[in-house]
Structure formats: structure tokens, C-alpha cells
Amino acid sequence: MSIIKNKSDFDIVLSARSEKRFTAKDYIYALITDFMEFHGDRYYGDDKAIIGGIGYLLDMPLTVIGIEKGKTIEERILHNFGSAHPEGYRKALRLMKQAEKFNRPVLCFVDTAGAYCGVDAEERGQGRAIAVNLAEMSDLKVPIISIVIGEGGSGGALALCHSDRIWMMEDAYFSVVSPESCANILWKDPKKADVAASALCLTANKLSDMGLIDKICKKKRLKELLSALREEYKQLMSLSSKELIKARYERFRKVGY
Amino acid sequence: MELKNFFIKANNELENSEKKVKSRTITCKKCQKKISVSKIRDGNYVCPKCGHYFPIRARRRILMLTDKKSFVEMDKDLESINILNFPEYEEKLEASKIKSREKEGVICGVATINGHRLCIFSMDGNFMMGSMGAIVGEKITRLFEYATRKHLPVLGITVSGGARMQEGMISLLQMSKVSGAVKAHGNDGNLYIVLLTNPTTGGVDASFAMLGDITLAEPKARVGFAGPRVIEKSLNQSLPENFQLADRVLECGFIDAIVSRKNQKEYIGKILKIHENNGGF
User: Fold this and answer.
1) Which InterPro entries match (chain A) (predicted)?
2) Mean pLDDT (whole number) for A203-212
């Protein structure tokens, strides 16, 4: 029985934010063997909201990147509650370019309420950092799979989702705006967040029905997820980089029209 | 002969209508002074008293920057539908069509600037605050694809509040779609110039507005990812005075030059000229 049965769309948003959920680190340590974490964007600093490194998915070397929220309050503060600064997105891109150089695929775990809103983030180019990720990922020569494991908060999540495959956990959400902000902007009433959540079509089920995501992953079935990932990479790696990039272009090209 | 007469007649009609406009005045939002509409129009929509930049319609922008009668519009009939059945979206679309006198929030086409052929897109702030939905994304993507096929430069004039909420993830994914098309255009050695105007924010800032080879901005244009009120609220502190304004964004390293309205056409023309043979020698 699915765990999301009888849950409203807004309930799913709330559960996606729950502190009890698996974070990116949990998935990385559960799925990736010999994970080595690497730090820094080589321009400014090391953003702890995004972690990344290399390891094995079963027998296959890969680069793995995750937006990490942390669990305890200390961890949450350390990881800035999973809201990345520009240097976080630049670190992610650096690791992806490294993956391209050494011809290994990329796996991204996405879990963020959104890119960090602040004077420093703006002045270091939050918009530019996200834009460059979208552009550079669009013709990265190696396969990219992104899994939204909790919150898919707008541009901050999208910056790690210009991928060959976007998967979502069954109780995750992916949205252009948080339902609260949406309700506040449109109806000046944050209490209408449940109406907004439903109207925004942000659940894995709805996004899958619209063909915007490629797979819904069942919770707590890590073995299944592991073999599904391995199988998907196998397929993607059978394509030439030219075919891969073309298919990725078409994947996004067809959205909305 | 008949055709010529037709044009003369059309021109006369235009002049008459412009004469009618001359008597009208509007109040400058910045200095509160009354200024005649014709003075504003003749002065590039800049307040002659205080230098305030009035917002400009997308179509007027194109007329101001391109050679006379050179603009040919593309995909002009594409219109948004309420794809998610989002509450009150149709009403907003209808109101925006009346307000902007356009069918959607961006106008795309080909034109020349000082004789240099290029593709141009111009966003309209009167159409749901220049927000990007599927049609805005589609039109800009088609323009980049056309420019790639024809090896033409692209000039993009941006004004936007970001992705259009009423289209949910479809609007967010337009950021990816357009960015892919921009990258492919650039990979073939084509030039992309962005002119940032007030305001360029949200999902547009975080995609094609920040991907220009050369990034220009109008004086005092607000350029940023998160809205200032959102930041103020989440940080609970007041923001620096010039925060997200063009001169500060230039200082931060994200704008090549701030160009006043009266110099924009000449400035962009010079950039196009220097790229005429794509720098080939």
C-alpha cells in the first residue's frame, strides 16, 4: 500500500519537509560505496548546503552530488537548512565537469526549500550560478540522473535537475513556488496554501502524469532504487555523448508546447 | 502609384494621432512633476525633469532599437492556455492582453540594427509582470533555434518577475528549455547580447538573462534572483540602498556596461559590427 494514499497535496509538501526524512547523506551512504567527499568551488569557498564527491554505484564509478539539509539543529545550521549559496551550485558544476573529464556519470539528490535568499548570495550571483548550471548541464557529455528526495524548491532545485532523468520519491514535491508564497502572492492569504498546493500540481504523481518526471520511487526500497539506477545508467551509457545530449535537449524542449 | 498613396495616407493618419497625444500630460512617479507625453516620447521615455526611466512596452522597445521598418515578427499568434486549470488564470491572461495590447509577454522576430541583421526578443512588463510561462519560453526557444540555424546574433531585452506560478512546473522548466537553446546557439559561435531592464528577477534572472556573452543594463534597473521584500523579510534587516540595482550589480561583476537609453542603439550597433565576421580574420 502506498504511503501517500489519503494524503492531500499539501500534506505531501509538509511531509517532504519533515526532519525525520532521509537526507541526501543518508541516500549517499546507503547507495554509494567508498564515497569520498570533495569540497569547494575553487572560486570562493565551500558551501556545506551542497555535498559532493565520488564513489561506486555497485560496480560503477560515479560522481554524486546532494543538497543536504542536516537532521539535528546543529547539522541543519551547518548545512544552512539545505539552501545553497552560489558557491554551492558552482561546486556542483565543478564536480560535474570533473565527471565529464573522467567519463563517469553523475547522480544528484535534490532536497531544498530553495536557493538561499540573502544579500551575500545575491551579490555573489545566485541567478548567474543557477543559469550557468542549467546551460552547462544541457550539454554535459555524461549521463545525469537527478532524484528529488524531499523538497524540490524552485530554481534552487532545478539547478541540479537539467538531467537525462528526473526521478522523485513518491512523497516528494517539485514546485515553481512554495504553496505558502503562492497563496500569499495571489490571494494575500498564506492559509490558502492547501488550495495553492493542489493547484500547482507539484506532487510526484501529478508531475508523472504530465510527463515532466520520469519515475516515481517507492520509499524505503533502497535495493530496488539501487538496481533501477544501475539499469538506467547502463541504458544511458549505451548512447554516444552526441545522442545523449540530443535526447536531453529534446527532453526539455518538448515541455509546455 | 496607388500603393504609394496608401502609405502617404497611413503616415498622415499616424501623424494626426500623434498630434492628438501631444496635449496629454502624465505625472512622473519619481518627481511628481507633470510632463507632456510627447516630451517623454521624444526623450526616450526618460523624465526630462528628474531622469526617471519610464517602463516601455515591448514593441516600442524594438522600434526604438532597430532600424525603421526592419522588424519582422515571428510566432506572433502563440497564446497561453490554462494548462493546469489554475484558479483565476484566464481572467489574468485576458486583463494582461488588454493592458499590454499583446497576446503574450514576449515579442520575437528578426530586424536590423544599423544594418546588422539579428534576432531580437523583447519582454513586456505589462503582461503578468513579464512572467515566463510555456509560451514565453517556447517563443524565445524558437527564436534561439532560428538564430542558430541562420547564424544570427540574438539581442534579448528582459523585464520579468520570474516564472509564471499559474503554470506550475511547466513554467519552471522553461528555464531549462531556454537555457539549453541559448547554450546550443553559443556553441556554434553565435553572439547573444542581453539588455537587462527594470526589473529582471526570479527565474528569468536565473536563466537566459544571465547567460549573455555581453550583458548590458539600463541605469538603476533592478537585477536579482530573490525579490528585495522576500530577502528583507527572511533576514529581518533592511537592505543596502543600491542593493540589486544595476550599478551595484556591475560592481559585483555581473554586468558588462550600463547604457543609457539614448545610447543603446548605437552601443549595440557597435557590438554587432565588431562581431560581424564573428571575429574571424
Assistant:
1) Acetyl_CoA_COase_a_su (IPR001095), ClpP/crotonase-like_dom_sf (IPR029045), COA_CT_C (IPR011763)
2) 97
Answer yes or no: do B179 and B214 share one domain: yes
B237 and B220 share one domain: yes
Residues 170-229 of chain A with CB under 8 A from chain B are 174-177, 182, 185-186, 195, 199-202, 207, 210, 212
How close A206 gets to chain B, by Cα (Å)?
10
Distance CA(B132)–CA(B128), nearest Å, equals 9
A123 to chain B, any CB pair closer than 8 A? The answer is yes
* Domain harbouring A67, CATH code: 3.90.226.10
When pLDDT is cut at 50, 70 and 90, the band that residue B59 belongs to is very high
Could you give the residue ranges of the DSSP H alpha helices within A139-240? 154-158, 179-187, 193-199, 204-209, 222-237
Q: What is the pLDDT of residue B23?
A: 63
Please name the member of A119, A127, A158 whose beta carbon is closest to the beta carbon of B205. Answer: A127
* pLDDT confidence tier of residue B13, bands split at 50, 70 and 90: very low
In B114-208, DSSP assigns E strands to 116-123, 154-160, 192-201
A89 has pLDDT over 50:
yes
Domain coverage including residue A93: 22-176+203-250
Model pTM greater than 0.80?
A: yes
B37/B89 same-domain check:
no
Cβ–Cβ < 8 Å for B33, B27: yes
Q: What is the pLDDT of residue B231?
A: 86
More confident residue, A103 or B20: A103
* B281 in any annotated domain: no
Which residues 44-63 on chain A approach chain B with CB closer than 8 angstroms?
none
Question: What φ, ψ does residue B110 adopt, rounded to 5°?
Answer: -115, 150
